[in-house]
Amino acid sequence: MFKANEVHTGRATRLPVLLVFDVNETLSDMAPLSARFEEVGASGQLAGTWFAGLLRDGFALAVGRENPPFASLAAEGLRMQLGMAAIDRDLEEAVDHIMAGFSALRVHPDVPEGLRGLTDLGVRMVTLTNGSTTIAQHLLTEAGVEDCFESFLSVEQAGVWKPAREAYAYALDHCGVEAADAMLVAAHPWDTDGARRAGLASAWVNRAGGRYPAYFLASDLDVPSLVDLAQRLRERSP
User: Fold this and answer.
1) Which of 104, 128, 158 is the last residue before a domain boundary?
2) Residues 29-59: pLDDT tens digits?
3) pTM of the predicted protein model
4) Where are the beta strands (DSSP E) in the chain?
5) What is the pLDDT of residues 82-127, one digit of tens each?
6) End position of a domain, from candidates 55, 75, 104
7) What burial letters (b/e) apply to 210-230, b meaning 16+ CB within 10 Å?
8) ∠8-15-223 over CA atoms, to 5°?
9) Does 217 lie in the same domain as 177?
10) In angstroms, what CA-CA distances link 44 with 10, 24, 40, 52, 144?
């Protein structure tokens, strides 16, 4: 088990009992959504602006104790973005075309091997997404790794978006695991920071080789892929 001081200094030396995975961008490669924007006549660069705005607004509503459906925020954000663009079709048709892109996303290339490596270590794994469990489960089924996960969890059931403490607590309660025995795996520093503040350890999946924001609590592990995460955790295996 992780000791409290080990979680908060990044010096945990034992395997976690439970790995909690973020989904959007952590497991799914969202780059193809840019092409969806281009297919409706908008700039592909709008994809990043739209997704960042979607997260911002979800976080803002969470502060007000609202729990908005991810798809509703995503669609309304698209209406605002595309309403100012020179699109080549009806606005709602364009929104539907881009939203359909979520079901067509695939995992990052490192995900299948990495998840299989983590499964071999005997750790329990679940997803915890700000999106829907349906999209998460479809993504991982298409990748042939659905069986790696014992549960597909969403903040829709938690009552509040990550990075609120209650979202992580929901996953822990569902799995019957203490925070000190769990590790969040995410590509987003805001998520790893939120998990740390909720008492979990965290692993930042830093595929782009970027800088971790100094204003967030540091992650316990910084890895370029899930394959590397499996190797780092294997080093802790008895």
Assistant:
1) 104
2) 999 999 999 999 999 999 999 999 999 999 9
3) 0.92
4) 18-21, 28-29, 106-107, 124-129, 151-154, 182-186, 201-205, 221-223
5) 998 989 999 999 999 999 999 999 999 999 999 999 999 999 999 9
6) 104
7) eeeeeebbbbbbbbebbbbbb
8) 70
9) yes
10) 38, 18, 10, 14, 29
CATH of the domain at 96: 1.10.150.240
Whether residues 71 and 43 fall in one domain: yes
Instruction: List the one residue out of 34, 188, 19, 184 whose CA is nearest residue 105.
Output: 34
Pair (71, 188) in one structural domain: no
CB atoms within 10 A of CB 109: 13
**Do 112 and 144 meet the contact criterion of CB atoms below 8 Å apart?**
yes
Percent of the chain having pLDDT more than 90? 91
Q: Count up the domains in the chain and report the number.
A: 2
The Cα–Cα gap between 128 and 154 comes to 5
Note down the domain range covering 177. Answer: 4-29+106-234
CB-based contact 212:232 (threshold 8 Å)? no
How many CB atoms neighbour CB 38 within 10 A? 13
Task: Please report, for the domain that includes residue 21, its CATH number.
Answer: 3.40.50.1000
Q: Tell me: do 99 and 118 sit in the same domain.
A: no
